[in-house]
From TrEMBL:
<protein>
    <submittedName>
        <fullName>Sugar kinase</fullName>
    </submittedName>
</protein>
<dbReference type="InterPro" id="IPR000600">
    <property type="entry name" value="ROK"/>
</dbReference>
<dbReference type="InterPro" id="IPR043129">
    <property type="entry name" value="ATPase_NBD"/>
</dbReference>
<keyword id="KW-0808">Transferase</keyword>
<keyword id="KW-0418">Kinase</keyword>
<dbReference type="Pfam" id="PF00480">
    <property type="entry name" value="ROK"/>
</dbReference>
<dbReference type="GO" id="GO:0016301">
    <property type="term" value="F:kinase activity"/>
</dbReference>
<comment type="similarity">
    <text>Belongs to the ROK (NagC/XylR) family.</text>
</comment>
<dbReference type="InterPro" id="IPR049874">
    <property type="entry name" value="ROK_cs"/>
</dbReference>
Amino acid sequence: MEGLVAGIDVGGTRIKAGLVFWDGTVVARGQWPTEARRGPEWVMRRLGREVRALAVQAGVEWRDVVGVGAAWPAFLDLESGWMEEAVNLHWKNVPIRDLMERELGKPVVLDNDGNAAALGETWIGAGKGAASVLCVTVGTGIGGGIVWEGRVYRGALAMAGEIGHLPMKPDGEPCTCGSRGCLETLASATALVRESRRRGLIGPSGSLTVEDIFVLVRQGDERASEVIREATFWLGRGLAAAADLLSPDVIVVGGGVAKAGDLWFVPLDEAFRSWVLPRVARYCRLSPAFLGEDAGILGAAKLAWQSFTEAREAPS
Ligand SMILES: [Zn+2]
């Protein structure tokens, strides 16, 4: 297959982008601060410059780029290409696809960050070769995406995969979505820090991060261990509910909290297996994400490959 696509992963603080071959090889990559407060027009102008500069970096012509895939931390209307809301960027009602196509001069396909990460991990990451993959990203919040036979499963309003808002605890903490006791209020990085503070834990610098909490666990701090036990209990229960519903081949778990490794992953796997249907568990593998920071870029790139090259080759 000739040509390249650009994969762009927009986060609350940084934008990452890469030029990607059909086999997932990243030939040039870059990242820069999002600076969302400057507004969509400004952010898009910089994005246009930075992404075109990748072609120079790779020694290819911009005209060799077939199309662009972009992952946004937002609720999107995929048909019209409008961003309805991006809570972390404080943006609402932005014609995001039109703005991007104008700056880049290429067709652009959009998706949310959870779906893009799921597609990336299924393409060349921890879910490679699997027919059905649930991908869960545990960071400040909890995001998710479902891939079914190589394609993102979206549901009616492209909202499928929002595992972070599974209702778990009726009297739980308020959630960013307006509800209470959602999975992300119980098991995200935000929840770990909140519960640790509640137990009086303090990090070395006076503040408290997820890394600090795991340092305390390693030092044998019982309060920190209890915070991790509770969070993994709830996440394991949420994953079991999702697995019973979907019966995926693989559940890929990534994000900032997953970087803690076995201290987090082992109790999570135990909790998951204690709740999930045994027949579902027999075929379902829980795996750490492989792609790390690259999942969004690669997923967005795969989306572009699927959207622009397959469409071009499809019989009319
Ligand atoms: Zn919620």
